[in-house]
Amino acid sequence: MDIRWRRDVRLLARCLPLAVVPLLLLASTFPGQYRVPWSYWVLAMLASALFVVGDRWPLAVSLALSILAVPMFRTPAWGLSGLVPFLGAVALVEVAMRTRANSRVALAAACWALAVVLGRWGSHEATLWGAATVVEAGTYVGVPLLLGLYLRGQRDLAATLRLRAADAENRRAEAESRTRAAERGAMARELHDLIAHHMASIVLRVGIARHVVADQDPRVNLVLDDVRETAADALADIRRLLAALRDPALGEVALVDAEAVRAEISAAVRRVEVAGFVVEAEIAPELAGLDAIGRLTLLRLVQESLTNVMKHAEPAGSVRVEVLRRGGGIALRVRSGVGVSGAKPAGHGIIGMRERVELAGGTLAVGAAGGGWEVDAWLPGVEAVAR
Fold this sequence. Notes:
CATH topology of the domain at 258-386: Heat Shock Protein 90
Number of strands: 5
Coiled coil: 158-185
Oligomer: single chain
Protein name: histidine kinase
Pfam family, one: HisKA_3
Strand order of the largest sheet: 1-2-3-5-4
Low-confidence stretches: 124-129, 249-254
GO molecular function, one term: ATP binding
């Protein structure tokens, strides 16, 4: 918005001479005493029109305005009409401000100086190289030239300061990111040393004990199998947590149990219903097949998908939510019916969903379907992850 506003202001400034120059010429007309010649009108309006395109071709416009200034200087002009030729001085300011090649700036300055000299010589009966002519030309050229060079220096200084500020901000952000990554890495190492190693040892020892007491009471074997499976599940959760901690871009990871996930999904569905949507939900009664990261990912996918529905779908629309066991994991499908407002869900939300699904080892497809919007995801269960 700010860029568009500045562009509009520049365009308005460019077109300003088209409105101001006729007023200057009319103000210089004195009935019965002086009337601005039609040739002067033509030259003045042509100069105003050329000034409009100076933003695209500053050097060419400056040279053209210098040429037009010569006959205007040579034409006797009363009052404010005598200011019109000095559009060439304004064009010289712009060339000096925007052009990096000094040779181009020198060319524009020389042409404007020549225009002033020829115009004064023709209109004031002065010698071509008289002192007054040279001083006047030097003033008319030197002031806009110095002003343009000064403005160029200020623009360069401002650009340098912006670059330095951006570089400092980037360095600060990188330093903070490295610090957070180091802290998370240290936490991950501590968890690995304190917990993961012991959990792996428990899994191994229970497996050995299972073979040693294979001929004992079957109930003992059942208990050992249960202990081994529980320890293996915990170890898988810990390893996923460590992976998340080592990657700060994926954010913090919370651990939730299966029942809490079902309750939160149901609560998210109710919020959509309260918002006026017709929701058809089919949620598997058993979500324990997912590990902690998978359960959290499933919950966030449902919440983000339903949030997008409330943001972008028309009120009173239909929504279908499916959370079903499929292919050794959990399949999620959230689909909004016909009546979507046409706005695409926010890119950052979809990126976050993809990152979570990738961390959990699943798949995600998001896109338009049947006039609505559909999120289709699959998250692997513990057994699929183990394989």
